Amino acid sequence: MANFPFQRLQADLAQLIESTPAGQRLLNEPALAKQMGVSRATLREAMRTFETQGVIRRRQGSGTYVVGKVPVIDAGLEVLESLDTMAHRMNLPLTVSDLRIDLFEADKESATPLDVSEGTRLTRIQRVMRADGRPAAYLIDILPETTLNAKDLPSTFSGSVLDFLLARGDGLTLSRATIGATNAVAEVAKALEIQRGDVLLHFASQLFDANNHVVDYSMSYFIPGYFRFHVNRRVGTV
After folding, report:
1. pTM
2. 235: in domain
3. I need a labelling partner for 193 at 20 to 30 A (CA). Which of 115, 142, 209, 238 fits?
């Protein structure tokens, strides 16, 4: 029974959000906390549930807005596919924005996952993927310049480095990913139009070629409400 008041708060918030038209701003935090009869800290904790579902979005200095029903990309992880491929299968249009491409020399942090020497010239590609015009994922790919130079990318680049490499005929064989939850740092929060510290789903992946060389190291940040990933696993015996 100890959690009943919090559950009631979440139920009241769910009703409020459902009755508010998409795009409309909710009351500011102090006013909403007063209306709900709770502290601002308790309200903020309850609101995080709806943020991770993607039905509300907090904008720094502006307020909290109702997003409405969001499209969900549902996909298995047994085979590596791009977001474009997953979305196309669901007839969900994705667009790329905030595309930034730069060259830099590898430091220890960037050299290690690519198994290259410090000082190696690397290409970094950063972009936001949008579903129905709303930020859904922030993607960063880092590759040796010898693998991908900025001038190699066409003006029609869709945002998928994987699809570009496959279409070019690169012999890609394996992807190894570490998956977990993380809190949005300032750069990621700004790109995704969320608050710093909000919870995101994070993939850190290495992409290997036929010679077992790492050709791409990527960091992907997903707003949980837009994605439902699943894995089919065979039951094994010891």
Report:
1. 0.79
2. no
3. 142
